[in-house]
Amino acid sequence: MADTETMECITEHERILQEIESTDTACVGPTLRSIYDDQPNAHKRFMEKLDARIRNHDREIEKMCNFHHQGFVDAITELLKVRADAEKLMGQVKDTNRRLQEAGKEVTAQTEEVICCRIQQRNMTTTVEKLQLCLPVLEMYSKLREQLESKRYYSALKTMEQLEKVYIPRVSKYRFCQIMAENLPRLREEIKEISMSDLKDFLESIRKHSDKVGEAAMRQAQQHRTFNSAVAKQLNLGHYTKPVYSFNGRTHVPNGLLMNDDTGDDEEADEEVLTAQDLVDFSPVYRCLHIYTVLGDRETFESYYRKQRKKQARLVLQPQANMHETVEGYRRYFNQIVGFFVVEDHILHATTGLVTRAFTDELWNMALSKIIAVLRTHTSYCEDPDLVLELKNLIVIFADTLQGYGFPVNRLFDLLFEVRDQYNETLLKKWVVVFREIFESDNYSPIPVETEEEYKLVVSRFPFHDAEIEKQGFPKKLPMSQSVPQIYTQVKEFIYASLKFSESLHRSSTEIDDMLRKSTNLLLTRTLSSCLQNLIKKPHIGLTELVQIIINTTHLEQACKYLEEFITNITNVSPETVHTTRLYGLATFKDARHAAEGEIYTKLNQKIDEFIQLADYEWDMSESDGRASGYLMDLINFLRSTFQVFTHLPNNNNDHASMSGKVAQTACMSACKHLSMSLMQMLLDTELKQISMGAIQQFNLDVIQCELFASSEPVPGFQGDTLQLAFIDLRQLLDLFMVWDWSTYLADYGQPNSKYLRVNPATALALLEKMKDTSKKNNIFSQFRKNDRDKQKLIETVVKQLRSLVNGMSS
């Protein structure tokens, strides 16, 4: 078994040795490692085997060396023989080389020169090629600098783009190109800042020039409006049969022909009208827009521009505090607004997307609300109708101008209706002053007419027609006073003034007619009526003036139909139209006439009261003076003369005759009733404590004069003793005391046919008690004569019965 293992070990060592001999030394490591991985004594046996193998190889080497030794010796001998020849050859070679070197020195020098020239030529060629590549870059960069210096920033940005994308990549390895590439972003930012600065300057410039732009646009709109009005008039006259329009100082008709405007002045005016492009340089906006577009930052630019324009819009819409004082203040305000939106409209159409229609509409709606609010506020401060009218014309031109640029202006025309109301209010206030001046300057006397020319002049101012007066010779008098034609003329002037506001409102004739009639109604029913009422109430207006006022209002009432015809002729709207408003002058003048009549009654009563205050009765007198009191006779004379004035009231036709008679009768009846009531109150005055029979007799004389006045028919038209019935209460009361017919009064009291039916028991009792007190204090009665005692008892008995009657009435 041990022999077998030894043989295997020997065989393995042989294999290892063969492997070591046949492989590279770098791969011996794993083979040697396997020796140590085997049995413990394998290493020793391997070393022994290795030594044996080495000895075998040494013996083989020695045998080979012995075999070749003689050949080596022979070779050495041959080399020694050749050495001498080699040294000789070496000397010859060196000598030949020396001569060759000496002969080739000049060639070598020339060759080196040629080589240097070739190198220089090659370098020059390379340099030219590289410069040809760099020159376009440098030229473009130089062009960029020139463009920046000349402020052609958009072109500069395009040049930068070409440099970056085309030229610099070709020579990017050169340092100067790298510097250029690094500078380009900085240059872009500079261009961006410069263009934004230009834009800010532009925004500031248009803020300052907006009023000039707006003024030019509104002037142009005014010229077109004037031209269209002239054309419309010519069309109405039949000069033209086709619509025309104006463009650049020439008139175009639909068939394509051109005709010059009527006057050279109009052409010059058209040529002088400057547009927004003439007044404002828009290039900064275009340039900045293009620059930001190229830089890819267009949205930022659009946002900034719109934000700044919104701020400017708010500033433009802020009015000056005193704008309402002059029309120039409104004109500047409108010019700025128009200029702002003309610029925006130009930007809208000249650029793509910088501002949109939605943006301008938003600005306009915001502006429109502010404008309307401002105008409402400031027009409320305006008291001058001429200023309001000029403001209306400005608003119309303002609206027409902006409407021409596509902005909706319906709300402005709606506002004009509010301004129209304000205008009418200012007109009404102005005409209040006019009417007051007319009334104050009037003499309230019939108009004297000396010649036919004067008569025609009055008739031309006021529609007066009276056949009887026309038949009369000159000189003659017209029934109305001077204020009537003046008021009629001023009403027509008011209609003209109101019509001025209605022009250019783009309203139909029917609407204008309705507006005129409504404003005229306000003038009649409010202004003129108020002035008449105030005139009637003035203390210095006497009865004569009141009578003349009644006459005047009658003629003004008759003239209302001519005012309606006047409005119809202006508006060409038939009065039979369904919705035509009627004038309320009839009611106005009737009310004024009734007020004048009432004031006549009031002043008559006041005058009667003044005379009554002059009464100075001796209430304890023993017997009367035998004649009426002086104050009463003066009062009656005053009433007679006063009622004669009523003969001047118009009675040229049946209606006026009945009206004048009614006024006179009513005034006379009112005066008599008031006089009767005043006399009755004088008797029953609580401060009057006693009345004698003599005073009663004196009072009876005065009442008799009143009755005589009533029966004398101071005003014709009373039937029978109607006027005397105003004193019936006094007459029956005085008869009762004068006759001392108490038995009849008490017996017939309450009967419809009683002689003293109008005597009230309380009135009789109050007067009887005043006489009772007098009887007690009378010295004659104090003597206690039988008759006097009987009379005193009778008075006491009557007093008791009257008190029972009064108590019965109260229960």
Question: What layout of secondary structure does this protein have?
Answer:
Layout: H1 2-22, H2 28-37, H3 42-149, H4 153-167, H5 175-237, E1 245-247, E2 250-252, E3 258-260, H6 264-272, H7 276-279, H8 283-294, H9 298-316, H10 327-350, H11 357-379, H12 385-404, H13 410-441, E4 447-449, H14 452-461, H15 467-471, E5 476-478, H16 483-502, H17 509-537, H18 543-571, H19 585-613, H20 630-645, H21 654-683, H22 693-711, H23 728-739, H24 742-748, H25 761-777, H26 786-810
Antiparallel strand pairs: 1-2, 2-3, 4-5
TL;DR?
By secondary structure, the protein is an all-alpha fold. It has four domains: 15-63, no CATH class; 180-231 and 277-407; 424-445 and 481-614, no CATH class; 616-810, Up-down Bundle (Methane Monooxygenase Hydroxylase, Chain G, domain 1), CATH 1.20.58.670.
